Amino acid sequence: MSARKSLVPQYRFPEELEAQETALAENPLMLRLHHARKAYDGDPHRPIYHYVNPEAMLNDPNGLCFWQGNWHLFYQAYPPEDARQHWGHAISTDLVHWRDLPYCIYPDPEDKCFSGATLVEEDRVIAMYHGTEVGNMVAISSDALLLNWEKVAGKAVIPMSSPDGTELPYRVFDPCIWKKDKIYYALSAGTKPEGPAGKPVRANFLFRSTDLEHWEYMHPFVEDDAYSLVGDDGACPYFWPIGDRHILLFFSHMSGGQYLIGDYDTIRDKFVVTQGGKFNFGAAAPAGVHAPSATPDGEGGIIAIFNMNPGKPTDGWNQIMSLPRRLTVTGDKIHIEPAGDLESLRNAPQIIEDIALNANEEVVANEIRGNALELQLRIEPGDAPMVEVNVLRSPGREEYTRIAFFRNRGYRGESLITIDTSYASTAADVVSRAPETAPISLEPEEPLDLRIFLDKSVVEVFANGKQCVAVRVYPERDDSQTISFKSQGVGSQISSLTCWEMKSIWT
């Protein structure tokens, strides 16, 4: 096949940081990106402290990594003059305040640059990604801001087809990469027909290489996966150590973002699964969590970030990135906390203590208003079967997003946390989404500790460091900015509530 050369301007930058900064300050593409971002100021649904790309559309995050003092976030971008996927690029020192950089990996010889991962070595960063129509690609950068990339061999290192036309025993799709004993290993996403009646099930195929150009296929990598579903695939894989275990994050085009926890058998080069779970609890679209990108944090945990799908047409842009999450494990239990210096965005704190919730009576916190807030609550549910927090609420409840906690109503006596957006918007063009409901295990007397992040068109809820649920919402009314509480059937108590206005990361 003959690839089309990208129509997007491409520049070669100096290698050293000071010279790079000088070049970036005068670069025409950077000026264009800056003006494009400014043009969205005032958009009522565009988040102000979640990352959104500066121009046009957005898809999967890719290759999250830490290099020479910066976190690097890459993503599938769709430049306006050539809407094939290129890799977009942003950096941050704190995982919160992001800075746009030029597009960095352009299609050629591939038709489009799809998803992939990075591996940070002492003197370089390796990106491995899927190049449509040709196969899996490897590119390398070693400059200060990872602006310049060279593709290994100038072609796919794991081609889509065999030279003699015989059927391959693996699928060539989204890859990830790591290194063990001076040998590079890579997974390629896909399925294998080993489900009931030959139906497809998630698969990730293992390869190895000594030079990044020549790759040997080994075998399917994952054993004992009883957690993903028939029909799942293993797209966007990220395989990393986490604590004394290993984790495989991936995206299923059928049922969304997931993870598998287990042990890496380095003798047989197999991942033996002992636990699994989900990052979204409904379809990825509309308005749900989509694919992950993940990297070790250097302290035994994993930093993961997800793109989130739209639920309403927005002029010139669509998807956004979630807040970064820090994942850790204790045994088979995963812990999820917001990552990065979110505290630096807090402004105008308000503190309310000891809010009594009488049974079946809605309590409105009239002191608190806003659609770009962080709320931190400690709720004592007591015997109440359900306690709810309504956010982005209009005074007459024409619009509201409901966050509900159900004590001991899940499988095995687990509790449940729900985001219900059924009444989040009165707009005719908002696509409805069924309630997002996730399990959470609390001890009998453990309070419910919530961190709720509201940012124009996204609601993210972190519960007790054990669970996170997130959705996109699109309030139509300017006055949908209050919050309220309700305890169903039996009274309960909010022992503390702290609210902060959140500042924009772009000012």
Task: Describe the structure concisely for a colleague.
This protein has 507 residues and is mainly β.
Plain-language structure description:
It contains 2 helices and 35 strands. With 507 residues, it is mainly beta. It has 2 domains: 287 residues, Tachylectin-2, Chain A (5 Propeller), CATH 2.115.10; 161 residues, Exo-inulinase, domain 1 (Jelly Rolls). The strands form 7 sheets. Strands 24-35-26-31-32-33 form a 6-stranded antiparallel sheet, with no helix packed on it. A 6-stranded antiparallel sheet has the order 25-34-27-28-29-30, with no helix packed on it. Strands 5, 6, 7, 8 and 9 form a 5-stranded antiparallel sheet that branches. A hairpin with a 6-residue loop joins strand 12 and strand 13. The longest helix is centred in the N-terminal third of the chain and has 11 residues. The protein is globular and about 70 Å long.
Describe the secondary structure blueprint for this structure.
Blueprint (H helix, E strand, L loop, with lengths): L16 H10 L1 H11 L18 E11 L2 E9 L7 E7 L5 E8 L7 E8 L4 E7 L3 E7 L8 E2 L6 E2 L15 E6 L2 E10 L8 E9 L6 E5 L1 E2 L11 E8 L2 E8 L3 E10 L4 E9 L10 E8 L5 E7 L11 E2 L3 E6 L2 E6 L7 E12 L5 E2 L7 E9 L5 E8 L7 E6 L8 E6 L15 E5 L7 E8 L2 E6 L3 E6 L9 E7 L3 E11 L5
Parallel strand pairs: 14-18
Antiparallel strand pairs: 1-2, 2-3, 3-4, 5-6, 6-7, 7-8, 7-9, 10-11, 11-12, 12-13, 15-16, 16-17, 17-18, 19-20, 20-21, 20-22, 22-23, 24-35, 25-34, 26-31, 26-35, 27-28, 27-34, 28-29, 29-30, 31-32, 32-33
